[in-house]
Design a protein that fits this description.
This protein is 26% helix and 22% strand. The chain is an alpha+beta fold and 128 residues long.
Length: 128
């Protein structure tokens, strides 16, 4: 029997095209079947704090704090990771910032079992 995971696996790599380090936590594919994990409120707040206080940003956006950042560049995109988010995709030019955040998120208090699945949603809709 597979042991219940306390937090999903994460991956950090360097992207040659963007010249940034990328990090992903995946609560669906990063844990053994049949488990699914999502961010807890503490995990979501930890990420928001890191986005404000470190050179980490959403992977498809940019960080405004670098010298000579072009005025016409997009700063951020989409929405911040919230409680119940399953897929976290962040970026930075600073590997140590991403590594520190990964260590902070790799604790059980930042994650919870997924409350909803596609089957739950489908069964709810068919009962209407």
């Amino acid at each position: 029997m597979t042991k219940k995971p306390q937090y999903p696996k994460h991956e950090i790599w360097f992207d040659e095209e963007s010249k940034k380090y990328l990090m992903v936590f995946d609560g669906l594919d990063g844990v053994p079947v049949p488990y699914k994990l999502e961010l807890s409120e503490i995990g979501a707040e930890t990420i928001k704090t890191a986005l404000v206080n470190t050179p980490i940003h959403l992977a498809m956006g940019n960080f405004w704090g670098y010298k000579n950042f072009p005025d016409d560049e997009v700063l951020v995109n989409c929405e911040l990771p919230e409680q119940e988010s399953c897929h976290i995709y962040l970026a930075s030019y600073d590997l140590s910032a991403l590594t520190a955040l990964a260590k902070m998120l790799a604790v059980p208090i930042c994650w919870q079992e997924r409350k909803y699945s596609l089957n739950t949603i489908k069964s709810t809709k068919t009962n209407d």
